[in-house]
Predict the 3D structure of the following.
Amino acid sequence: MTNKIIGKKTGKEYFVTIGLEIHAEMKTKTKMFCRCKNDPFNSKPNTNICPICTGQPGTLPYVNKQACKNVMKVGVALGSDLADFSEFDRKNYFYPDIPKAYQISQFQYPLVSGGSLVGVELERIHMEEDTATSIHKNGKSLVDYNRSSVPLMELVTRPVIHDAETAVKFAKELQLLLRTLGVSDANLEKGEMRIEANISLSENGYFDGDFSKLGVKTEVKNLNSFKVVGQAIEYEIKRHLAILEGEAEGEIVQETRGWDENEGATFSQRKKETSDDYRYFPDPDIPKYKFSELEEFSKEVLKKELPELPWEKRERYLTDYKIQADDVEFYLNNKAFDKIFSTAASLLDNNGYKKLSNYVSTDLAGLEKNDEEGSLENISGEQMALMVKMILEGELSSRGAKDLLLEMYKNGGEAKVIAKEKNLIQKSDEGELKKVVEEIITDNPKQTEDYKAGEEKLLQYFVGQGMKATRGSANPGVLAKLFKELL
Ligand code: ZN
Ligand code: MN
């Protein structure tokens, strides 16, 4: 996780420092400070609103307990400290999407402090409210308050990341965690999860607690895919370097930059405010919380509510099933496939896991990807396990398995029944196949003679004839064995 760059022109050594700020909308029934439905994507604008989330004078907010618990669960999963005491603050700024002219956030006392993910240390996670959505069309600006005051968590890492790859890895793992905990859908494209990256280059080394060591940082926003997060960071590193080396004009100023997809470049949006500009102060309308006195918010209680965490599951799959790392990631990120795999795996043993995983992560995923008519819901883990057992026992060829899988995907049903109906069962009965083999030998005197004379390649020819005679239903392994014996 270290990335030093040597300037080509000056030969100077630059240390790259990256910090992330990630917002995620919490999945709760209601909004953060009122009882309106938490449904920001409701197609009808301004339907989930009330006097509180539209900032009417005289209204009083009350805190959504579940939203706070969700954030604290994330903290417990990341090994962070939970707040003994917490308060909410007003972050003051004026914009149409923030009807009170302040956002309720947390400044000095966040719910969560410290912890780490993929080796990257966190500074904090705090709770706040989302803004409304601005829509600009036909020269007009419209505001939809359905999203106003939706619970939002903001996670801040320490400035301890040194390359784009690690930043992306962190964000991906966080998304996986939020989804696993069920606290956020964390879709980047929908803005349910928003990643901002701070980038700076310094000649004075890496962060050691002293911020003055770091160079001037720029912040890139509106990064709506993991790919773009990586691209924007790489771009900023190059841009900073060029300016520092005197190869490009201008200077690096603390500012917020956006990402231009067409240009593949960042562009200046606005000079960055410092926290002083926001005039933070404790919100007098919301009581202070002594979480240490509330058992339901204790680490012990919240820990019991955690499901198996992504990194725990990853470890378990790799050790217990010994399948490929790519397959494991696929299951971690695709619940429906994981359900089929894990149910089937529990019914199989060491001999079956790899085969099973191939059929689920390659063949079945292929059917789903190619929009083949059918549904994953038609296939249960139980039937999948039965199919793999049939293959292992020689009853089903790999060709037959593909046909069977397609049929189950299209119309459901039981593996055994379909295999029989569709004539996919391989004939492995030696007594029955022996007759076929004898006939072929009699019908091919020339090849028989050549084989006996040492032309062993001809075995393939004989097996082929056997498959032909049984119209593909014979087990080629059994055929080969019989030919060897009888020739
Ligand atoms: Zn409301
Ligand atoms: Mn924020």
